[in-house]
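Revision sheet: structure tokens.
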Amino acid sequence: MSRLQSRFAELKQQNRAALVTFVTAGDPGYDASLAILKGLPKAGADVIELGMPFTDPMADGPAIQLANIRALEGQQDLAKTLQMVREFREGEQATPLVLMGYFNPIHKYGVERFIAEAKQSGVDGLIVVDLPPEHNADLCDPAQVAGLDFIRLTTPTTDDKRLPKVLNGSSGFVYYVSVAGVTGAGAATLEHVEQAVTRLRRHTDLPLCIGFGIRTPEHAATIARLADGVVVGSALIDQIA
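Predicted:
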């Protein structure tokens, strides 16, 4: 059983949703970022998404774009991000950690090298927002062969015809983007989220985590009653900036 499977099974027994936290590696600097990363499990994070800094984070809103800029100005790169995971794993073995970002830095690093080093570092899964299922052979398939989960994004515009293709090969959990647009955008209505969860559960048994636009504890608690996990990113990064 993978770390992600174990964590979601444990939370299901406790009848509660996962708090999934997103931070950008290297923001506001390597040492501070590592300290934040190490502190997240004690602060209540059940799953951690660690952003891989990139020069053109097209799916991200202003908060995470600025986090990417700060990290890159501090010379954060993919090698340092993997080193950060290794240092995190020296003291924390239970909390799943997923790398999230874009394909370009991985491609430049070398896919085989990246997968091998990610697995060795203690990464549990990948979310690559600009790599559709038509390109599974580029990263998804070899990553899963190596034992890394590959987590897909679904959105309000993913229709029933497209959804099975998006979910095919997904593992770990499904990340539902609750609003069309960039991270940190306005929140979806509860009715919309409820309908989306019902539809997704018809297509997959994987845990469903909901993100984008969740900015308050009250909103997170409301979403948590519907889903298996709630993703908080921009609201957390606003506190780091």
